[in-house]
Amino acid sequence: MTGDLDPLVEEQITTWREYVSRRDAIDGRDVDELEDHLRGQIGRLEASGLAPDEAFLVGVKRLGALDDLSREFAREHSERLWKQLMFADAPAQPRGRSLWLALGLAVGAGLAIKAPALFGIDWASDGAFYARFAAVLVLPFLAAYFLVRRHASVRTTVIVGVPFALTAVVMAVYPFAPDGATLFLAALHAVVLLWLVTGIAYVNGAVRSGRARMDFIRFTGEWFVYFVLIALGGAVLIGLTVAVFAAIDLDASRFVADWLLPCGAAGAIIVAAWLVEAKQSVIENIAPVLTRLFTPLFTLLLLAFIVAGFLQGNLVDAGGDAPEVFGQRDLLILFDIVLVVVLALLLYSQSAREPLAPASWFDRMQLVMIAAALVVDIMVLVAMVGRIAEFGASPNKLASLGLNIILVANLAGAGWLQLRFVTNRTPFDRLERWQTGYVPVYLAWAAVVVVAFPPLFGFV
User: Would you give the distance in Å from CA 381 to the centre of its chain?
Assistant: First the structure.
């Protein structure tokens, strides 16, 4: 490969090479070939009068989008691609090493979730224990997978490890009531907190990079899709296991309940992550494709709900004799979930969008979806405040209220920037930076619920 380039360009090429190398459809020799083409492009562009950094940017652009390159490699080397998706025995195959690493950590996660059984703690009957420690038992293995895959530094490893340790201490020391609301809230938000901390491992400590945060958001959506698919396949496996053994008068339900289900679920978390890494950019990402399908449907759902609510005439009734639309706590939580789904649709459509492309009809539909979501969100917020004023505060109400306020601010900012984008008054990357910059807010809120809520409400 040619050299003698500007030192700054050499650093940029190193960063680019590391990024391309993460795409498992492209092996080391392919990366070398692409880098050689890139260096040739840069040399010719510099000779034509461009500055070194400009030559690098134009050279990368001329190579084509990484997704396009990956798909081209997949087409040209389909036999190799299918072999790489299987168990690769050759030690030189990065995919083989990553697969064995994932399988080893998946087994470790499965054993970790069953380790409390050595002390007489059963996952099916001791729900309070597993509510406390499920995230702490399993997610460290996922974080370890990324730390090893990214060759993380000691500093990054410590940054990731400390929140896991502190969360484990908090969940172990706090005297939660077994069926208390604060235990449920802390357990739920511990999952969110530690998932976002795992994101630090995924981006190899590049927490200030908006693009790295968007990569993790994209990974989260893809991981969820794969995990659900594995769960569906696991359900079929469980059904067949019980039926086959029943045919010879053996009851396998105990084995399924005690081992197959908990260990399989824990291991699937790691395997789903490996699948996302393995097919990254080989084919079109699934989450953005589903976003294209469900964005119009959710927009219609929100608009229909607003119209129905006005026709009913009880949009924000938090009490009284009239039928309540928002008066019940479960409905308030339900609409928080709906708003989270709307936010996810917005995020994953942005993650797959070409930043320089002009605004399209889909962008305008998203603006309508955001506006409808904001109307619903504000109605929910008013109802929550009314319930708290009438019946007093509780952990569930304040947790829902805090999340709702965060969603209002997030969607309001996104809506304003989306409006400016579709009217050609701001570039798309400003909208993307707003969304990725908001991720630490969710991490901070999850930490507050885990650490502060239980003592504030007497651990009940």
Answer: 26
